[in-house]
Amino acid sequence: MKLIRNGTFVEDDFITVGDGDQLPDGAAIVSLERWQAERETLRARNAPIGVRLQSGQEPGAIADDLDRIDLVALEFPVYRNGRAYSYARILRERYGFKGEVRAVGNVLRDQFQFMIRCGFDALEVTDNITPEIWAENAGSFSLFYQPSADGKETVLSLRQRLAARARENATA
Questions:
Q1: Which fold has domain 2-141?
Q2: Which tens digit of pLDDT belongs to each residue from 19-40?
Q3: DSSP per residue over 118-132, as a string?
Q4: Could you list the mean pLDDT of each consecutive 10-residue stretch along the chain, which spans 172 residues?
Q5: How many CB atoms lie within 10 A of CB 111?
Q6: Which residues contact 6 (CB under 8 A, 6 or more apart)?
Q7: H or E stretch including 76?
Q8: Half-sphere exposure of 12 (CA within 13 A, CB side)
Q9: Using the 8-state DSSP alphabet, how is residue 16 labeled?
């Protein structure tokens, strides 16, 4: 798998660790179940830690610990299951999470831009995704009707701003 972080292909510093596996010395991603079972030990580590949430595991389960979590990996098990979009927005907007929100699992190229708009800043993609495919799919739209976690101006606010400017110019 390849990792795209903030629009750039990068090496993944994190290692996903199974529930029974030994933790590496460096950055690790653990399951929610392992986080809950070993919370104090994991919080005390002197290395970055991430928690992977499956599609039915809501971010509220780790909300009180987000100050000690560096990364939240949200799983897309199949293309029909989009709960992770909502979870990314909840992490960013409700909980103010500033760490990395990573899309993992069935990450499809036609959804790149929507993932970014919902608050994902890293995407784990298949090996056949190239920088050209990323650029083509991540920037396919420049204007949006819906507000989102990426803070881009909506069409409505753009129209209102342009109308206000036109009124100012008409009275000047």
A1: TIM Barrel (3.20.20)
A2: 999 999 999 999 999 999 999 9
A3: HT--EEEE-TT--HH
A4: 90 95 95 96 94 96 96 92 94 96 91 88 88 73 64 75 86 80
A5: 19
A6: 121, 122
A7: strand 71-76
A8: 18
A9: E
